[in-house]
Design goal:
By secondary structure, this protein is of the alpha+beta class. It has helices spanning about 75-85, 125-130, 155-165, 205-215, 240-255, 260-270, 280-290, 300-305, 310-320, 330-335, 340-350, 355-380, 385-390, 395-400, 410-425, 450-465; strands spanning about 5-10, 10-15, 20, 20-25, 25, 30-35, 40-45, 55, 130-140, 140-145, 175-180, 200, 230-235, 430-435, 440. α6 (about 260-270) runs antiparallel to α7 (about 280-290).
Amino acid sequence: MKWSILKEGGDFYLDINGNKACGLNGDLTISSAGAGHTKDEVWFKCKGEKVGKRLLRQNYNLDGDGAKFRGTTNNVEFLKVIESLGVPIHRRSTKKRNVHSEDFAECVTDHDPVPETVTVPDGHKIIQSKCAGVFCIAISQLVRSESFCIRPINTSWVSAIKKDLLKTPSQPVTTIPVVLDSELCLSIDDFQADDNNSYIILGGNHLVSAMKLIMADQTSSDYECLGKVNAQVYVGLNDVEALYLSSLHNAKTKTLQLSFQDKVRVARRAYMKNEDSWKEEAVVSLGYIEGKTHTKAGLSTILSVACYSTNNYLLVEQVFNHFSDGSFPQMLFRNLQSVADDKRTPYLSKAVGTNGVKVSRIIVADKRRENLKILACQSLNQQTWEDVEEHFFKSEEMLRYTGEISSPEGRGRYVTFVNKLSLNSDNCVIISIIVNGIERTFDNEILGKKIKEIKTLVEKEIMNEE
């Protein structure tokens, strides 16, 4: 594959194999250039594109206008020529950066930022000791495992990558992390590079999925370059180490942001191991993935959802799978934290196909109603709400109170409100009813009843007396 820089008007474009390179938003218009991850790689930032384009300096087309690059022997000289054309150069910062350990992370430049707060695990040297090196591996040897995946595959993102690769086919310069299938060997000392090996992808699942789709559909030799990818091979990693390496890859590519759904699934995976320390493992794993220091308190909503009962968690996945607009709002699950597991089911069922906001409001209203019942029972010295309904005919009106009850003062005002309604109940007019010449008196218990019901009630009393 040959590439070059094309100038039209006042803009610069990337030309690959004689054609203008295209991105997700049309032609790749260069906004700046800089050094890549390796000594032979050049990086281009393009207008309207979230991800830059990386190309190998050695593949630059030296014919025609490219002759001016013939004398360059390194990236510094190469970039000086690009700058002389009028392309802005993005240079490395001289400030010390807070990055992952150099023991096993590639050089990270300013155009590939990592999170500001990064937690490097104490065992990073152990992880490095499990690295067998970088190999060019056929994509047919790469497999995806749910155990090592941070998020489900986003089909629309795969389609976009596939479309981009079809326009400008070239072997990706990105080196993806993989781990050797544990059934083949568990020790780095026993590892042997073999075309029959099976490797589990730790990062770059969307890219590999797109490449596999292309190789399955295309027979042209133009696409043979998409049959292999550079991979950093690890042997004998545990789940936490694998997630950490995945986070390194994600921090560099910055393609898809981790959603609430993704975080819950990572925590659920730790919970399903049935270990007493699953919460600690989930906190550590999410910290590695996001490059942050987490606490259990800070992840309380995520951890609470991760340990739902089997039936309720199936509903959670239905809620997630029906939601396609980024990260699911946490409001629903935050309000469900104080709801017993067996009481969550109807709320989760209602939330399927929604963003959960309306159901969240229903939960809040139901909680308030229950709190009002509890306060009313305490104020009226009744054991249950059913007792209140039996003895006070204005019980339903007690639940229509609109003032706040979160503070002691607010609860005091509600108690006063309830007591007034109860006094009104005690001051009701006594009603006399004569049936077949026999008179009976009643108070609150017959209010709201139909005449036929009252007649039946009186007749029963008379029969009991006889």
